[in-house]
């Protein structure tokens, strides 16, 4: 019993220290995952904790369990609009892109390290895919708002590319350990099984769990446990039949998260905590598993492998895979740079270790060092690179808080709060005045909070800067309604321009109004047609074209992802004229 208490104390202490240390990481701009990893290494055999942990099977079990929870949570938070924007390029990047990275890195590793080609390509396959845990965590906590095309591509790629990586690692491990039983035909069958069964199981289970979630009545805290346990059941069943459990749980989460009902908010709140617990436990265990001295011994190999992966293999694979999908050059460069490696490569590196593949310890140590290098270099530069490459869009005004009240199992009422800023339209206005526009029909004023207390309103009440006002709103009107409460934001005006124009305006008429010339092929075309020619059928906020010196930027989309408003930035010469 004393041993159990000691074990509980050690694990709880490690988790507690890791969580508290996240405050320091935020100030230093260090990825949170690196903090969990560092605490684990400090507590390990060569650290101050002196804990000896070399159970690779247990580490693999924790890794698989944690990644399943993380991918399920990632799917729950992925909006279907994200899928519409980037499904095709992300799918190509998750298959052909991974294969291209592995091919290039495998050749480099084989000749640079002077090892057998099968071992070199196995190393490349292990680190060839981006990591969902790292991408979801670092992008959503980076402090910058990426344009939707870039963020959607990175998030979907990380959720979809695990089957290809697992396939390549499994095939190459089998080729080394049991060459007589491995062949091209077996690899192709495995690929079809991994992708096909993963998609089938994921979509079927996602629809089933979404249906059950909508129909069953449970205590609030049990909804998320039902989804988590259902996701883990799906993960196990898909793997047992030869499908990709990771792909299955991600797709199931995607369907559940986009099938809104009275339990969705409860599920998301609890799953957020479970995902953080999974990430912390995963990186703590991986930190305990590694020996810093071995990492230093193989540091130069890892540095070379990591540098080639970040600067050559990943950029070339991205460029050759998705340049045909109308990405701007700066977007391709950023997607190339944010090829984050994390827990997935380390978990995959455990596979050859457990099978006793000769040289697998070298693969594990180099993989671990490459992951640390990726988190240190790429993870810490996410916001800086985004600003330098101009893939950031200004934060849009949004509700301060949202609360759903379900009147029936299918009828929700959404209450949202808005902070009144100085210089906004709401300042010195009556709360009811904000709902009079035809655009906000169905909106209702609910409460006004001033200095932490609810204020009784009457006809003479006027809102002041610092007030928090609650309204009942249609679900798709929150951001548009929030603009009335936002003050003057120079960054947004500088980015989008001072004026707005409708997407059905003609390019030549707009240019003539400011004494500018358009290209002959642009004459008579509506602005929306020009955006469609340049960016395809799925525009995103921040997309920009230039007509006769006028910068026109997509400012707002409607609920169907169609352009609603365009921002207009007029050159100084035209303004003077």
Description:
It is a single chain. This protein folds into three domains: 1-389, Na+/H+ antiporter like fold (Up-down Bundle), CATH 1.20.1530; 401-485, Regulator of K+ conductance, C-terminal domain (Alpha-Beta Plaits), CATH 3.30.70; 499-569, 2-Layer Sandwich (Uridine Diphospho-n-acetylenolpyruvylglucosamine Reductase, domain 3). It has helices spanning 2-28, 32-43, 56-76, 80-113, 117-126, 132-140, 148-160, 162-177, 184-215, 220-240, 245-257, 264-289, 292-297, 299-322, 329-337, 343-354, 360-377, 382-388, 478-482, 490-496, 507-513, 527-535, 572-576, and strands spanning 401-406, 412-419, 444-450, 453-454, 468-473, 499-501, 544-547, 550-557, 563-569. The chain has a five-stranded antiparallel β-sheet, with no helix packed on it. Strands 6-9-8-7 form a four-stranded antiparallel β-sheet, with helices on both faces. Helix 4 packs across helix 7 (148-160) and helix 16 (343-354) packs antiparallel against helix 17. It is built from 23 helices and nine strands. Strand 1 and strand 2 form a beta hairpin. The mean pLDDT is 84.
Give the structure's gist in a few sentences.
With about 575 residues, this protein is an alpha+beta fold. It has helices at about 1-30, 30-45, 55-75, 80-115, 115-125, 130-140, 150-160, 160-175, 185-215, 220-240, 245-255, 265-290, 290-295, 300-320, 330-335, 345-355, 360-375, 380-390, 480, 490-495, 505-515, 525-535, 570-575; strands spanning about 400-405, 410-420, 445-450, 455, 470-475, 500, 545, 550-555, 565-570. It folds into 3 domains: about 1-390, Na+/H+ antiporter like fold (Up-down Bundle), CATH 1.20.1530; about 400-485, Alpha-Beta Plaits; about 500-570, Uridine Diphospho-n-acetylenolpyruvylglucosamine Reductase, domain 3.
